[in-house]
Amino acid sequence: MKILVTVGTTRFDSLIKYLDELVLPSDMAFTFQIADGAYKPVNHPFFSFSEKIDQYYQSSDVIICHAGAGTIYKLLELRKRIIIVPNTERTDNHQLDIAAFMGNNGYALTVIDFDELFNALQQIKGIDLLPFEKHDFDKTGEILRFSVSGN
């Protein structure tokens, strides 16, 4: 199983270090996207950023990601199996909210405690996640009508 771990644009060294040091079965192969992280994995390949991130997404069976909205929605549109780990090292905790929403609604597995990650990797193979349906949001016409009518 090919597993991509992505942290987006903000470092998440504790997650990368934990997974890099995790003893895995031979059928699990990690690749890490570490942003500007200080921790450099020693047991698995890694990169900081890539213009070809979509290729990494497509070739991965499972993606472990931070709870960044842009990353999550992109992966859901691609119908990828995702495990969301909110980055609580950030100064704000908005990632907890989106992670809870996605996990509670069956779109992804959500893990708060790193010690649950191995079980989540075992579980994600056989779980039926709900497909996420994107709804276009375009209020341009409504805004123009409002502006022209003066209401």
Jot down its keywords.
single chain, 151 residues, alpha/beta, Rossmann fold, 36% helix, 15% strand, globular, hexosyltransferase activity
Q: Average pLDDT value?
A: 90
| Architecture per CATH nomenclature, i.e. the level-2 architecture | 3-Layer(aba) Sandwich
Helix/sheet category: alpha/beta
Number of strands: 6
Radius of gyration: 18 Å
User: Which regions are unreliable across 5 or more consecutive residues at pLDDT < 50?
Assistant: none
Protein name: Glycosyltransferase family 28 C-terminal domain-containing protein
Family: Belongs to the glycosyltransferase 28 family.
GO molecular function: hexosyltransferase activity
Main location: endoplasmic reticulum
Description:
Its main location: endoplasmic reticulum. It comes from Cyclobacterium lianum. It is found in: Endoplasmic reticulum. Residues 3-113 form the Glycosyl transferase family 28 C-terminal domain. This protein is an alpha/beta fold. The protein has one domain (2-149): Glycogen Phosphorylase B (Rossmann fold, 3-Layer(aba) Sandwich). Helix content is 36%, strand content 15%. It contains 6 helices and 6 strands; from the N terminus they run βαββαβαβαβαα. The protein has helices spanning 13-21, 53-59, 69-77, 94-104, 117-124, 140-149, and strands at 2-6, 29-33, 46-47, 62-65, 81-84, 109-110. Strands 3-2-1-4-5-6 form a 6-stranded parallel beta sheet, with helices on both faces. α1 links the parallel β1 (2-6) and β2 (29-33). The chain is globular and about 65 Å long.
